[in-house]
Write a structure and sequence with these properties.
- The protein is of the alpha+beta class and about 140 residues long.
- It has one domain: Gcn5-related N-acetyltransferase (GNAT) (Aminopeptidase), CATH 3.40.630.
- Helices cover about 25% and strands about 25% of the residues.
- The chain is globular, with a radius of gyration of 15 Å.
- Strand 4, helix 3 and strand 5 form a beta-alpha-beta unit.
């Protein structure tokens, strides 16, 4: 398998939807809402693509300030290409591109065991809120 990696490739919203749909992340992303997907594509500022020829088979989508924090919003690998080190290589490429910033992510339930295996540390303090009305 000859997979190549590219920093900030030109990808379309259809490429993004396709790779998310073919990975386990498709279940937790608004793939049916094309406008939301367009906004997700526009507002991330770093991408790493994994390609089998010209076919996008993996994608790391991140938001970063380049010096302190990088949030890895999506790590998606087409299920047909999983278990070949593509996800790990996407993370390495992203971290090498932004070496100063700490890489942070929220693991999907199915992937919680993956990240410690590749050397990532678990952080015990993470909080989130979906709706401003949840603040009391």
């Amino acid at each position: 398998m000859d997979i190549t990696f590219q920093i900030n490739p030109k990808i379309s919203v259809h490429d993004l939807i396709d790779v998310l749909e073919k990975s386990t992340l498709g279940l937790r992303r608004p793939l049916h809402d094309v406008e939301a997907m367009v906004q997700m594509l526009i507002h991330a500022n770093v991408y790493v693509g994994a390609y089998d020829g010209t076919k996008l088979v993996g994608l790391a989508r991140a938001m970063t300030d380049y010096v302190y924090t990088t949030y890895l919003a999506d790590l998606a690998v087409d299920e047909a290409y999983q278990h070949h080190g593509i996800g790990k290589k996407l993370i390495k490429e992203l971290k090498n591109y932004i070496p100063k910033a700490k890489l942070i992510l929220l693991a999907a339930p199915a992937a919680e065991g993956y990240y410690p295996k590749i050397g990532m540390q678990k952080h015990p303090h993470c909080y989130f809120i979906d709706d401003v009305n949840e603040i009391n």
